[in-house]
Amino acid sequence: MTRITIAATSDLHSHWRPGTVGGIAGAAAVLAGIDRDRAVVIDAGDLLTGSPLGAHQTLLRTDAGAEHPLLTALDGLGVDAAVPGNHDFDDGLDSLLGAAAALRRTRYLCANAIGDQGEPVFAPSAVFVREGVRIGVIGAVTSHVQRLSRHGGLEHVRFTDPVTAIADQALRLRPEVDLLVAAYHGGFERDPETGAPLDYDRGENQAARLLEMPGLDGLIAGHTHSARAGTRARDDGARIAYAQPGYAGSHVGVLTFEVEAGAVQVVGARAVPVEVNAPSAHVPRAAAERLEPLHAAAEAWLDSPCPLDDDALHAAVAARAGSRRTALGLPPHPRTWRSLLAHFPAPHGASDYRVPRREFEDAVREAGARGGDSGDGRVPRTATAPRFRVVDHGGADGGADAADSPEQWVAVTANPAFGAHLHPSRVERAHLVDWLDEFARVARHVHFSGATGGDHA
Ligand SMILES: [Zn+2]
């Protein structure tokens, strides 16, 4: 009888040592304590963006085909299999393919990312052998990548239904392996314990469906940043173990199985909390030597001037949010990346509002009175007050005013500095966007095209 462990991270979001949760370093310290001869280590995606370290790397990433230090760190952590998260596509498919091609140990898996010729663009699955036990791992990502990620660079890939893609792979792999696990960058649409819905079931999260899939012994989920783990019996009588490892290294998911003569017994599943500021001695050197200096460089970069002017920032928000009007409170000059980050805090640095026109005009007046209003040339009242401005970007339907009538409602994307002047009930949609990363991408383009403003499409 062989005891096999599946250990997993997910949604690390480029946090090395964030201070409040474990980060990659903390998770790495937990992984270092696992007996690798009898384990497969998985990362379930959303690794590359979400912290200043990630945004700084986005800014510096001028060669789309090059390795990406955060992805390469998976090699250093001894991760066997990784799946892309929706955010890992933010810099486009080619960029991710280039970074994945540089991996040596880690197999990058995704069964439902399909190219123009109908071919999977990543390996759909891989088989690992531990102490003679054959362990199959199937990777997949939420089919909502195109809606959730930045659109540019994804013209030559489509994301098919992950449940179907995993089922196809499971059917093919099952006869060849002793133990079969799916790693899915998507969350639970229903509580796996109670069956209660966790969100509107739009198909973005389908992990609960995967628990019902015949042939699977284990499931690693991600995307929604929850930490959960458990085991359950399927309708066909078999048991399945599952784990979702939280956010930014808050937890490591650990599934345990006993395998004997091809028969699998589920032993247990845990979401292990990760120690904050794990001692460096427990962090693999290969990863630490690579990421520790990048972490320090990102901290220094935050205090450097941001080259984007107001127009460029408004245009960036409009383009990413798909909005025709933006109302932003922006940090006064001199403007650093850190001050910009403070004005677009995670997780909802900007939201879409729908507001009666009169209420919106009151908010503009109120914001302008509290801070500065660079729109009409008035000087800000204090040096630290945000500069408020409303920009209409026009649109295919002939302009904002035509679209606002006859109800006389205003649709606008605002950051919290401006949104504070609007009633919370007016929020239509909160954008889960890493704005620092988005602005870094625009700044990279400005730098290399020599453009000065908002042209960044
Ligand atoms: Zn995600």
Describe the 3D structure:
With 457 residues, the chain is α/β, with parallel strands linked by helices. It has two domains: 2-297, 4-Layer Sandwich (Purple Acid Phosphatase, chain A, domain 2), CATH 3.60.21; 310-449, no CATH class. The chain contains 14 helices and 20 strands. The protein has helices spanning 23-32, 52-60, 69-77, 93-101, 145-148, 162-173, 207-211, 285-302, 310-321, 337-343, 357-370, 400-404, 416-419, 435-449, and strands spanning 2-9, 39-43, 81-82, 107-108, 113-115, 125-130, 133-141, 157-159, 179-185, 218-220, 227-233, 239-245, 251-260, 263-273, 325-330, 350-356, 372-373, 387-392, 409-414, 427-431. The strands form four sheets. Strands 4-3-2-1-13-14 form a six-stranded mixed β-sheet. A hairpin with a 5-residue loop joins β11 and β12 (239-245). The longest helix has 18 residues, at 285-302. The radius of gyration is 23 Å and the shape is globular. Mean pLDDT is 90; it is low at 373-381 and 450-457. Bound molecules: zinc ion. Zinc ion binds at residues 46, 85-87, 185, 223.
- Biggest sheet character: 6 strands, mixed
Structural class: alpha/beta
Helix content: 25-40%
Task: Classify the beta-strand content into a percent band.
Answer: 25-35%
The total of helices stands at 14
CATH superfamily of the largest domain: Metallo-dependent phosphatases
- The number of strands is 20
Shape: globular
Domain module count: 2
